[in-house]
Design goal:
Length: 239
């Protein structure tokens, strides 16, 4: 998959894309990233990318022409391309949307807004969808775009060391993940649940599943509406 990031602060991406799973995926050729400086596509002596809003009011608005020129310079990769505006007014980002992008797109183009946002005529003409990472307002779309890059990257085949760990992540089955423990067996006077040391794989699976359900019920009961249980899991719940 290819992901292109359009921003007036392209340096923002340097370190985050050079660490951990994203870096590994890039080096392995699983993920290709393009970073584009919108300012390089602005005209005039000051290469201005923003202007005052028509109708007056607070702040500045990103101009449509540099955005359109920057987008036009992005190389086209594959048939299935989506242009996404990072915006608090967008549809909420979720594991389901990350999976949709990872499965159904060859190329994502993530446009990072700044100031008060983007001239609506650019959005109307060029943007396929707007994407919000949560009900709060950031100063710019760069952090939001990095969230999308990271979440999508984990779902690309081969990106994770352990093949099935994305399938067992929180949200993948409308459940939160169970608690995790590692060595030492005693820390700050606390032990590890005995079943995890028992070597009984079926009992461990059962324990983890029930804990996932309990945690989800306690912290995110809204998720459970999307859960469909196998017959074996139903039995476990009713034991
Ligand atoms: N005035 C806008 C509003 O009230 O909807 C907020 C603009 S915000 C200061 C500047 C940019 O940050 C936005 O254009 C968008 O690209 C990005 N941004 C802010 N919050 C975001 C969020 N929750 N999700 C995705 N992008 C966000």
């Amino acid at each position: 998959m290819r992901i292109d990031l359009l921003s007036i602060f392209p340096d923002f991406f340097t370190t985050p894309l050079n660490e951990g799973i994203v870096r590994r995926a890039i080096l392995a050729g699983i993920l290709d990233i393009g970073i584009h400086n919108i300012r390089e596509h602005a005209t005039g002596p000051h290469r201005t990318t923003d202007d005052r809003p028509y109708g007056g009011g607070e702040g500045m608005v990103m101009k449509a022409e540099p955005l359109a020129a920057c987008l036009a310079a992005v190389p086209r990769v594959g048939e299935r391309r989506r242009v996404i505006l990072m915006s608090p007014r967008g549809l909420p980002f979720s594991q389901g949307r990350a999976q949709d992008y990872a499965t159904n797109c060859d190329q994502l183009i993530l446009l990072c807004g700044r100031y008060e946002g983007v001239d609506e005529r650019f959005t109307a003409r060029f943007v396929d969808e707007a994407c919000s990472i949560g009900d709060y307002v950031l100063s710019g779309g760069e952090l939001a775009a990095l969230v999308v890059v990271d979440a999508v990257c984990r779902l690309l085949p081969g990106a994770l060391g352990c093949a099935d760990s994305a399938e067992k992540d929180s949200f993948s089955r409308s459940l939160l993940k169970h608690h995790q423990y590692t060595r030492p067996p005693l820390f700050a006077g606390m032990t590890v649940p005995g079943v995890l040391l028992s070597g009984d794989h079926a009992a461990v699976e059962r324990h983890r599943f029930l804990e996932s359900v309990r945690l989800t019920l306690e912290r995110r009961p809204d998720l459970l509406a999307g859960l469909s249980l196998s017959q074996a899991e139903r039995k476990l719940l009713h034991r």
